[in-house]
Design brief:
Structural class: alpha+beta
CATH topology of the largest domain: Gyrase A, domain 2
Distance between the termini: 94 Å
CATH class of the largest domain: Alpha Beta
Shape: elongated
Helix content: 25-40%
Strand content: 25-35%
Largest sheet: 8 strands, antiparallel
CATH architecture of the largest domain: 2-Layer Sandwich
Order of helices and strands: HHEEEEEHEEEH
Number of domains: 2
Number of strands: 8
Number of helices: 4
Radius of gyration: 33 Å
Amino acid sequence: MEPQPPWSATAPPGPARRFPPGTIAFVVIAGVVVLGLVVTLALVFSGVLSSNDTRTAEKRTGIAQPISLLPVEEEYAAPCRPGDQSAGKLDPDKCHRLGTGMVVTSVRQLVTKVGTDGKGVVQLSLNPDDARAFGDLTTRLAAEQPPRNLLAIVVNGQVLSTPQVMSPIPGGEVEISGNFTVKEARDLVAKIKG
């Protein structure tokens, strides 16, 4: 046999190397387990499997009656024109032409409390997406002159309140106050929740 140069790719002659039975299966299984741990750790550190992820842990409360938050485009004396809203119990002699705003169909929290004047107040906490939209809406309204800086809060076709927006409200915390008794505020929350 001719001598091979040191860079030859052929294996030296000799017996084939043998592993004990089960060794290959053990190595494959151990490799799969290690790969699974690496993938799991990568997902945890990237936030996909985090238990603190607010995108998946956020509590939402569905509501039976959507809450419309609509800008007042015009305010005038009654009688109301077709398609416009009466100010209702708040001011039965006024009408509002309402613009396009937003509709809330779920909230983080919806409760009744007693205001400093002893009247009933409905308080709701918006979900993050609605809170951003509400912040944008109130930013736009705060830049307007009366009555275009009024925000109509409408439930079941009835204007509940038309507060004047003086500054943007970015946090998503909304209070509906009007001329409600505490019982009327509780009834309203029960109606909204369904």
